[in-house]
Amino acid sequence: MRGVFIYPKRRGCGEISIRLLNRVFISIYSYLLEVLDDHF
Q1: pTM (predicted TM-score)
Q2: DSSP string, 1-40
């Protein structure tokens, strides 16, 4: 599991993982905004 958090030295894999993390973060953030909008 430790290898998942360490970015690989090869540039391509690192870029793909960063893009995936960004996409997941944006989706969670927008979901939280919608939930907060509903409550407030």
Answers
A1: 0.49
A2: -HHHHSPPSSHHHHHHHHHHHHHHHHHHHHHHHHHHHHH-
